């Protein structure tokens, strides 16, 4: 792929942000939509623009439990009014009788003629039942005006939005009962490695349980993808080629883990080059360096994209979060989310790795009112424990030593589950 991005001369690896740009550019959305009942569409990607059906709020209404009044009546009576009406939520729109106030509740329609609501705790009621108001009541106080949030016909949600619980709530608040969403992305998952066995199988020395498969199935499900799990494939070019061809038949994306590095037992790259092509291989991040994007088939356009994630479990996780996820989202027709990061002070010092941006798994502690990052545990790319404890990553630029008390870019982990 000719993108104008260059691998760093010294390492031959792509910069993380250049690699993300390539992933997003390569992620063509899949065709195919379906109409679903609103709640079944939760987590899916909207395929159509949705407009507001109603003004929001639909009528002027009270923001408080209290009394609705006409300011001119209050001025004329010297600060107290009799209660002449009672308006609960769900009542129709009424007119406020002159010279009195209305007992009103949160969300109830404001009576015509009223121009303020006073919360009940700012009032007192005398023995005769007159309500006494504070000296200053502002026009419009505690009134939620019709259409102040939205007017009917205005854009509610754009295509490409993921239907989060709040987006479902927004649609429900408009009375919308069904929506058109993109079909689910079909992702074929292949775990490679002679040593890799599934949980439940008997362990023998040298065997490694397939944690990547378990993790990626969860991560794919969290993105609303359909996972076609092809299980564990042994480290031979022939077995891998067979698995790739099978995956290609039905998937919108092939995701494999392991065998993507440079040893002679690592067959992903050569097999990919034989059955299709390679877009790039190797990103200047730690963990996650041996990451590959390519395609299976005659051309990128006619082929099926393939992402090779490293075998080391934390490298696989980081490769998914920083690179594969924006691709999956783009292929789902989602508007890609920029990487969220903000400065956080390091509570430790550490030597830098050469030529790679490091993603340290950290926990945030609060010290004197500000967050301070500490290492969540061992930082080896095979050490899942720290990845599991971490709140996020402290992202350290290549060749930069971490100095205690200095601030670095912190990427919250929760963003990768959105
Ligand atoms: N000479 C070099 N060796 C390595 C390099 C390099 O640049 N030159 N890169 C290292 C880095 S960085 C990483 S990360 C790993 C990744 O290598 P692979 O993607 O080829 O992965 P494997 O060699 O197949 O496995 C690595 C490691 O991960 C375990 N593994 C594999 N699959 C799974 C799975 N499904 N679940 C859990 N664990 C898995 C595997 O047993 C190995 O321990 O390469 C370095 N080497
Ligand atoms: O990318 Mo590897 O993850 O440094 O071990």
UniProtKB/TrEMBL annotation:
GO terms for molecular function: metal ion binding; molybdopterin molybdotransferase activity. Pathway: Cofactor biosynthesis; molybdopterin biosynthesis. It comes from the Bacteria. Residues 188-330 form the MoaB/Mog domain. Belongs to the MoeA family. SUPFAM superfamilies: MoeA C-terminal domain-like, MoeA N-terminal region -like, Molybdenum cofactor biosynthesis proteins. NCBIfam families: Glp_gephyrin (NF045515), molyb_syn (TIGR00177). Catalyzes the insertion of molybdate into adenylated molybdopterin with the concomitant release of AMP. It comes from Halomonas nitroreducens. It catalyses: adenylyl-molybdopterin + molybdate = Mo-molybdopterin + AMP + H(+). Its cofactor is Mg(2+). PANTHER family: GEPHYRIN, MOLYBDOPTERIN BIOSYNTHESIS PROTEIN. One of its GO terms (biological process) is Mo-molybdopterin cofactor biosynthetic process. The keyword Metal-binding applies. It holds the Pfam family MoCF_biosynth. Its EC number is 2.10.1.1. GO terms for cellular component: cytosol. Signal peptide: none annotated. InterPro entries: MoaB/Mog-like_dom_sf (IPR036425), MoaB/Mog_dom (IPR001453), MoCF_biosynth_CS (IPR008284), MoeA-like (IPR038987), MoeA_C_domain_IV (IPR005111), MoeA_C_domain_IV_sf (IPR036688), MoeA_linker/N (IPR005110), MoeA_linker/N_sf (IPR036135). This is Molybdopterin molybdenumtransferase. Keywords: Magnesium, Metal-binding, Molybdenum, Molybdenum cofactor biosynthesis, Transferase. It is an enzyme of class 2 (transferase).
């Amino acid at each position: 792929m000719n993108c104008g991005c260059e691998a760093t001369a010294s390492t031959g690896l792509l910069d993380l942000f250049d690699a993300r740009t390539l992933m997003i550019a390569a992620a063509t959305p899949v065709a195919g939509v379906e109409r679903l009942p609103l709640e079944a569409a939760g987590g899916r990607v909207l395929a159509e623009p949705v407009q507001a059906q109603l003004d929001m709020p639909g009528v002027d209404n009270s923001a408080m439990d209290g009394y609705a009044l006409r300011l001119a009546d209050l001025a004329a009576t010297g600060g107290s009014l009799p209660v002449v009406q009672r308006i609960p939520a769900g009542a129709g729109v009424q007119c406020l009788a002159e010279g009195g106030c209305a007992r009103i509740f949160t969300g109830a329609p404001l009576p015509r003629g009223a121009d303020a609501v006073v919360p009940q705790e700012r009032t007192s009621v005398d023995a005769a039942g007159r309500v006494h108001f504070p000296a200053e009541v502002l026009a419009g106080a505690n009134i939620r005006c019709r259409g102040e949030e939205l007017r009917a016909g205005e854009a509610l949600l754009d295509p490409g939005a993921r239907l989060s619980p709040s987006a479902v709530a927004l649609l429900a608040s408009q009375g919308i009962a069904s929506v058109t969403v993109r079909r689910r992305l079909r992702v074929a998952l292949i775990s490679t490695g002679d040593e890799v066995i599934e949980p439940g199988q008997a362990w023998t020395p040298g065997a490694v349980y397939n944690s990547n498969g378990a993790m990626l199935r969860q991560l794919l499900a969290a993105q609303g993808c359909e996972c076609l799990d092809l299980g564990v494939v042994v480290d031979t070019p022939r077995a891998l080629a067979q698995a790739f061809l099978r995956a290609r038949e039905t998937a919108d994306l092939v995701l494999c883990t392991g065998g993507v590095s440079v040893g002679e037992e690592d067959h992903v790259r050569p097999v990919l080059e034989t059955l299709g092509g390679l877009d790039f291989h190797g990103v200047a991040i730690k963990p996650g360096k041996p990451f590959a994007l390519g395609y299976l088939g005659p051309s990128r356009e006619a082929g099926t994209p393939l992402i090779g994630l490293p075998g080391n479990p934390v490298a696989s996780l980081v490769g998914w979060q920083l690179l594969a996820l924006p691709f999956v989202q783009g292929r789902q027709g989602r508007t890609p989310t920029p990487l969220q990061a903000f400065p956080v002070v390091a509570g430790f010092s550490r030597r830098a790795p050469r030529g790679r941006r490091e993603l340290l798994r950290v926990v945030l502690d609060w010290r004197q009112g500000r967050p301070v990052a500490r290492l969540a545990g061992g930082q080896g790319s095979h050490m899942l424990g720290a990845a599991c404890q971490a709140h996020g990553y402290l992202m350290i630029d290549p060749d930069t030593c971490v100095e205690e008390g200095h601030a670095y870019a912190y990427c919250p982990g929760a963003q990768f589950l959105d």
